[in-house]
Amino acid sequence: MEQENPRTYYERIQAETLSPYAMLSQNSRGRERPLEPCQIRTDFSRDRDRILHCKSFRRLKHKTQVFFSPQGDHYRTRLTHTLEVSQIARTIARALRLNEDLTEAIALGHDLGHTPFGHSGEEMLDTLLPGGFEHNEQSLRVVEKLEYDGQGMNLTYEVRDGIVNHKKDASPCTLEGRVVSIADRIAYVNHDIDDAIRAGVLQERDIPEACTRALGDTHGKRINTMILDVVEQSFSQPYIRMSEPIRERFDELRAFMFENVYHNPIAKSQEQKAERVIEELFNYYRTHAEELTGEYRKYLEIDGPERAAADYIAGMTDNFAVRDYERLFVPKSWMDAGN
After folding, report:
1. Which of 148, 187, 248, 318 is the most buried (most CB within 10 A)?
2. What domain count does the chain have?
3. How many CA atoms does the CB half-sphere of 149 hold within 13 Å?
4. What is the DSSP-derived secondary structure letter of residue 262?
5. Higher pLDDT, residue 168 or 279
6. Dist CA 1 CA 257 (whole Å)
7. Burial group, residue 198, by CB count within 10 angstroms (0-12, 13-18, 19+)
């Protein structure tokens, strides 16, 4: 009798044990370009590995989450945010008997297209680029076109769908994608509270009392309350949601964060400078497209110089964008300029 390979064994176990609402690997709608199946990994775990090893993923460690270039080792970056989303999403998926490989792949890829300087960078590119700019759509563009030297990663349909539809009002085609969407919000609201307290922008007592009573008075308690509520409300159901009382308090907490942190003039004091950097770089590269690297020039004739400039800038880390701005626009001494 022929021995079953690890991939087919795991696919069989999935079919026998996962929820009837889970997306099974063998039922994927597939890739844009056919690919020989791996002997060990399922299609979704293969996608997870492709994302984990790509350059865009590594650059997330030097991209702003909320606080631009914070002086401290414990503030979140876009990479640590991504890892926290992945952990929360996998916890929920496991409890609901959904496909963890698919969940993790979507979570790891959901912010690959995020700009330097967080949402201020995204908002500036949105005003500059004809047709607008959204980081979820850019994340899809990264995995479909820009990564792997302009060839794209050739990911499965379900992973790409989850990446582009992870924002609050979107509707991913799988429950795994919906788990990542809610995990993203759980993660950023709670870890941004933690960072804001560390930065002195907030104190724990500033958090609305109704939110503290319903959700908990610590970072860990709040996350645990939300995860347990999502699992309880969604178990053996064809949807992912919170209960109405928890969702109301969560929405209140999120609104509190927008008012007191995301739009806080102290926390966001460097935003105007960051936006100036993005604007100047965009205006430069849309007229100097010959200076872009290969993967960003590849689609120049198809998508135009503005899109190519936005692709290049969105891929920058915070520090690279600042250094590039200084190289292009800040005068040097005569001796330095000659070197």
Report:
1. 187
2. 1
3. 0
4. I
5. 279
6. 60
7. middle
Instruction: Please report, for the domain that includes residue 78, its CATH number.
Output: 1.10.3210.10
Q: Are 163 and 110 in contact (CB under 8 A)?
A: yes
Q: Can you give the residue range of the structural domain that contains 89?
A: 6-337
In a domain, 227, yes or no: yes
Report the 10 Å Cβ neighbour count for 148. Answer: 15
Mean pLDDT computed over 31-37: 95
Tokens of 211: 């939110």
Q: What share of the chain is helix, strand, coil (3-state, %, to 5)?
A: 65, 0, 35
Q: CA 239, CA 232: separation in Å to the nearest integer?
A: 12
Q: Looking at the domain assignment, is residue 49 inside a domain?
A: yes
Distance CA 96, CA 92 (A): 6
Residue 1 covered by a domain: no
Q: Is 110 helix (H, G, I), strand (E, B) or coil?
A: coil
- What is the structure's pLDDT at 168? 83
The residue type found at 112 is L
Question: Rounded distance, CA 334 to CA 339, Å?
Answer: 9
Interacting residues of 73 by C-beta distance below 8 A, sequence separation 6+: none
The whole-number average pLDDT for the span 239-258 is 97
> 10 Å Cβ neighbour count for 97?
16
Report whether 154 contacts 183 (CB < 8 A): no
Query: Do the beta carbons of residue 64 and residue 116 sit within 8 Å?
Result: yes
- Assess contact for 28 and 43: CB atoms under 8 A: yes
Q: How many CB atoms lie within 10 A of CB 322?
A: 19
| Sign of the alpha-carbon dihedral angle for 41, 44, 47, 52 | negative
Task: Provide mean pLDDT across the span 209-231.
Answer: 97
